[in-house]
Amino acid sequence: MIAFIDEYRDRFSVEFICTTLNTHRVGGFITSRGYRQSKARGMSTRSVRDAGLVEHIRDVHGRNYGVYGVRKMWHALRRGGIQIGREQTARLMRLAGVSGKGKGRSPITTRKARREDTRPDLVQREFRAPCPNRLWVADITYVRTATGFVYAAFVTDVFSRKIVGWALSDSMRTEALPLQALNQAIVSAKETAGVIHHSDHGSQYVSIVYNERLLDAGISASTGTVGDSYDNALAENVNGSYKNELIHTRTWRDVLEVEIATFEWVNWWNQARLHHTLDYRPPVEVENEYWHKASTSEKIKIRANA
Predict the structure, then answer these.
(1) Using CA atoms, how far apart are residues 13 and 28, in angstroms rounded to an integer?
(2) Are 137 and 107 contacting, i.e. CB atoms less than 8 angstroms apart?
(3) Alpha carbon distance 240, 237 (integer Å)
(4) Mode of pairing for the β-strands spanning 196-199 and 135-145
(5) pLDDT band at 108 (very low <50, low <70, confident <90, very high)
(6) pTM, entire model
(7) N or C: which terminal CB in the chain sees fewer CB atoms within 10 Å?
(8) Of residues 53, 104, 79, the one with CA closest to residue 274
(9) Cβ(84)–Cβ(53) below 8 Å
(10) What is the pLDDT of residues 262-298, one digit of tens each?
(11) What percent of the chain is helix, strand and coil (3-state, nearest 5)?
(12) What phi, psi does 10 have (nearest 5°)?
C-alpha cells in the first residue's frame, strides 16, 4: 500500500488516495496520517529482508532459465542456506513478478521404420534403475530456425536423470544424429555391459547400424508399444523440458546458435537443475553420492577380507 501511494502521490494527493481507497474497500486501508507515520519510521526489518530476498529470487529465477515455480524455488533457496517457508516463497515470488513455466506438448518426430522391429520391451514402463548405466532412454525432437529445421537427440540415464549423450544436426539420418548421441553416452560411461537402451519405433533406432553399435557395446535394445507415448515417457519428458525451458523462449537463427545454447542447457540440466524426482537435487549430485557410497562400501569389504 505504501508503494502504491508513493507511485501516485504526485498525480493525486495522499489524502485523496487514502479517502478513495477507504471509501471503496472494507476497512484495513491506511489513512493519510498512518501513511506519513509509516514513512517517518522507515522500512521495517521484515520489509528490508523481503526486498533483499525479492532481488535474490529474481536472480535465481533468471539463472535457471526462468522456469522455477514455487516448489523448486523454495528448495533452491533452502539449498542456498536461506531459512524460508513455502508460503513465504510464493508471496515473495509474486512480489518479484516471477512464476514457473508449465510444459507444452511434445512434438512427434518418429518416422516408422520400413524393416520389422524385433526388439522386446525390457522396461514395461518401469522407468527405475538401481544405479547409473543400467537403463538409458533415447528420443529425438526438432527445433525450428530461420534457416530450416534442426534436430536434437538425447540419451538420458534413468537412475540420475542425467543427459549422458546428445547431438544436434540439420538431418535426422542415423549416423548424423542419434548415433552421435549414443557414441557420446558410451564413451562417457566407459563400462556399458548390461545397459538397457529403450527408445520408440523410429526408423533411426531400428536401423542396422544403430543396433550393431548397441551390440558391440554390450547394450540390450528395448522398445515399447507402437504409437504409445507412455512407453517412452521419460525420454519425451526430457524433450518437453528442452523445448519448454530453452527452445520456446526465443527465435533461433541457425544450427550453430541452437547447438551453443543446447550445450549450456544440458550442462545446467546435469549440474544445477533441481529435479523433483531426485528429491530436488541435480543429476550430478545424485550420481556422485552413489559412486561415493559404492566406493566406501567396496573399501569396507576389502578391509574385512584382508
Answers:
(1) 20
(2) no
(3) 5
(4) parallel
(5) very low
(6) 0.77
(7) C
(8) 79
(9) yes
(10) 999 999 999 999 999 999 999 999 999 999 999 888 7
(11) 50, 15, 35
(12) -75, -25
